[in-house]
Amino acid sequence: MASNKKYWKSVEELKGSSIVETLSKNEFVEEIPTDEFLGDKDTLENSSTSRRDFLKYIGFTTAAASLAACEGPVRKSIPYVVKPNDYIPGVADWYASSMADGFDFANVLVKTREGRPIQIMPNKEANGTTSARVQASVLSLYDEKLRLKEPTKGGETITWADADAAIAAKLNDLKSSGKSVILLTGTLASPSTEKIIEEFIVANPNAKHVVYDAVSESGATDAMMAMYGKRALPNYHLDKAKTIVSFGADFLGDFHGGFEKQYVNGRKPETGSMSYHVQFESNMSLTGANSDKRVVVKPSDQVFALINLYNAITGSNISSKSTPVDADVKVMAAELKKAGSKGVVLTGMNDKNAQLVAFAINEALGSEIFDTTNTLNIRQGNDSEVNQLIADMNSGKVGGLLTYNVNPIYSLAKTEDFVKGLGKVSLKVALSTENNETVDAMEFALPTPHFLESWGDTHFDQATYGLSQPTIQPLFNTRQIQDTLLKWSGNSTKYYDYLKSFATENILSGSSWNKALHNGFYKLEVIETVEFETEVNVADAANALSNSAKKATGFELTLYTKTGLGDGKQANNPWLQEFPDPLTRVSWDNYLTMSMADANELGFENPVRDNGAIDGNYAKITLNGKSVTLPVIIQPGQAKGSFGLSLGYGRTFGLKEEMQVGVNAYPLYANSNNVQFGVAIEKVAGNHEFACPQVQKTIAGRHDILKVASLKEYKTIDPKDHHHGWNKPAYVSYDHQEVEANTIDIWDEHNRELGHHFNLSIDLTSCTGCGACVIACHAENNVPVVGKKEVRVGRDMHWLRIDRYYSSEVETREDAKELGLSRGETYRALETEAENPEVTFQPMMCQHCNHAPCETVCPVAATSHGRQGQNQMAYNRCVGTRYCANNCPYRVRRFNWFNYANNDEFDFNMNNEYGKMVLNPDVTVRSRGVMEKCSMCIQMTQATILKAKREGRAVNTDEFETACSSACTTGSLVFGDVNNKEDEVTSLVEDKRAYNVLDYLQTKPNVIYQVKIKNTNEA
């Protein structure tokens, strides 16, 4: 159980580094620069100022500073001459919409203030979910640096009319000459847009539509086409699964768009049953970190393990070879057979043959989890057609290329071939929201609006039709691609009218357009059809897959997308760049992940500096004649003989200098295959400085931060049992007896039953560590971005962080001595733990303690406790002593070392007029010298109370929300009023899994955690 384990955040902490021990005792990792404001030693010694004068001077300046703080700058605003009837200043409006940028697809709600979108939340009625990237996309709307503003030809501004005339004439010439015109887009998932493209092709018979996704899942769509006659992605109903086996499919990350909501819905311990999830993988992924059992296996062995599983389940004898994990494969074959139709197998390999083998296993099981009817219409890129396009361009067959929001010059492995072929194309037109390498290479650059400025429709799966609507007037002189294609097809219809007519006639079946637009979606009936199964020879597919893996040599590389940056479309978004990776906790970088065993053999290390910063060595890796030099992170859980590297970094064109970080891994993405063999590596000179807060925010030397139990323990053992309980309360010695800590208190209790009293419950079982809540908190509370340099020295400003803990069975070195282990044996035992540790994620924010240690030490009463349970900050009272941060056992307070707004040193979103449009006017932008922290979204709770008061009613059950709880896809974060017995949080606080972090300190937090339950398959 949890109490018998050692929890650790970094390799250095695992080793027991003295630096980590020192850092755990420091209030702040950076020394206060007293010399800057007190002068040097000689000046101070020669000063004739008396102590009395000094104190008088200090008193005067403190008073002056306090008065200055009360005199904020005067900002004048111009009122409406004629106020819109449906608009109330100071009250937010919400619009239902959909996001589809080619990589991320979501049904969303958009919050606007005074005509400005400021936040995105999931449209839960449409079963919508949001990731960190979807949450952050609202900031990309205001990216004045990167967005295209005017139509241009050869870099010179032209009018839309001139652009239309010139391009139409060229299209007619190409039609006459018979040369092809290619429209290259990402996945659109838009029925009306696809119909407009069809009409454009009818008007231009020499035109063709090619779909290109930077991060390809063409292997799965090709396999679906081969086996079921449908080019789509299969759906997976993981909420119904009993046994889940995944071979490198990060389905809690970006695999098929993610299935975190369904996954968590099938893992509710209170129901008495949970799905059993086993992950075979080489990289430590978000999915592997959340699995019940994680089997570390390098990519080539995953291939043979998948084939061996197929043989074991079907009784076939397809040629394969043994792997180090065959014992686990044999066990999982038995488990899947036992689960039958409730079992499912997934693979993340972008290989048609691998997908066919996985599909065949699901067919053999009769899997109900594997859905080929209500399929997914996302990630429709076609690798073979993209390769053919490049070949046709170079052979001179392509006369015109029209691109829409794609950047192949950055993201193609065959960049050189594409650029060479582009030089042979006579008509080059880029329709794009942002400027990028590909747009710069085109003759015409036509700006298109951001999705928050656009009309549109979406069809992410067969059952859900979504609608998009503009939430702000266009910021620049843009035009939607749909309007452009209609005009070039000779159709004068406006896209809005076209869309409304299309939806009414083809989708809504007599239902109201206005209702569908208001809701943001319309549910369609998915008709069960007889599955079209072709005669796919699975043996041939498996043999082809096996033969490719048998050729594997050297080190093996898995290319993946980070939870934060994805495919790199939003690389100029500072919220995402500063977002710490859930696993490595590194921000502002990509890197080569390497196992501890390989690092020791190759001589790589990640030393921790005395300020908590982590450094790294550089490696040069070579693959298919291409070399990349990048830093190395030693990642516990990485398979020996394999590396991991994330895509989406290394962009430079048009980006702010601060955002030009990392290296471009796309040149290594040969054949769009996320697994590459034959990687050569060498250590090269240089020291890399990472921005990684994992050591700096360690709550060190304290137990009961995390509690983890098995499903069997949850069902059979009393959680409070003094000896064996999995949720034992803290005990202290009182009057020579051990008593529960919560029975002893030095504080007087206050009556908290009047009015509202807010609590936040966090279920560690359902928290996947995705971090959507972190970005939602940024957006709602105007949290500043500080940049890589400041993050490195421990000055990040995140109000909410996701702590990632690894766990080891050997708790301390003293325990090792008791077991009779030598020093070498102890180190090897700990190193073994680092080969495949268990992982737990824990959201950590201000705990809003009812007996708050921070409140008692503030000399100016800037932090105090409200009657509703929130620990409040009066920013204009704070003088920055930082005593509160020193006295906080949870390390959740943040100090403004600088003015981050209107400061050229921090050129992020708060330093220009467009970026400031995303700021929430309900929340103060803090100034230098002020302490800040999670406010439990007090502006949201007060808005809810005022709304109910205005409407003459009581607050509804579960009406209270915070930004983090609203954004949480899995429902892990539940916020509410414990004085309302009907609120969900009230029962959660009393649940047998509920506990407080560091409960023996008796701070009595209003944030309650639920013990994490893992299905060890014993129950």
Automatic annotation (TrEMBL):
<feature type="domain" description="4Fe-4S ferredoxin-type">
    <location>
        <begin position="837"/>
        <end position="868"/>
    </location>
</feature>
<feature type="domain" description="4Fe-4S ferredoxin-type">
    <location>
        <begin position="869"/>
        <end position="898"/>
    </location>
</feature>
<protein>
    <submittedName>
        <fullName>TAT-variant-translocated molybdopterin oxidoreductase</fullName>
    </submittedName>
</protein>
<dbReference type="Pfam" id="PF12838">
    <property type="entry name" value="Fer4_7"/>
</dbReference>
<dbReference type="InterPro" id="IPR030948">
    <property type="entry name" value="TAT_var_transloc_signal_dom"/>
</dbReference>
<dbReference type="InterPro" id="IPR017896">
    <property type="entry name" value="4Fe4S_Fe-S-bd"/>
</dbReference>
<feature type="domain" description="4Fe-4S ferredoxin-type">
    <location>
        <begin position="758"/>
        <end position="788"/>
    </location>
</feature>
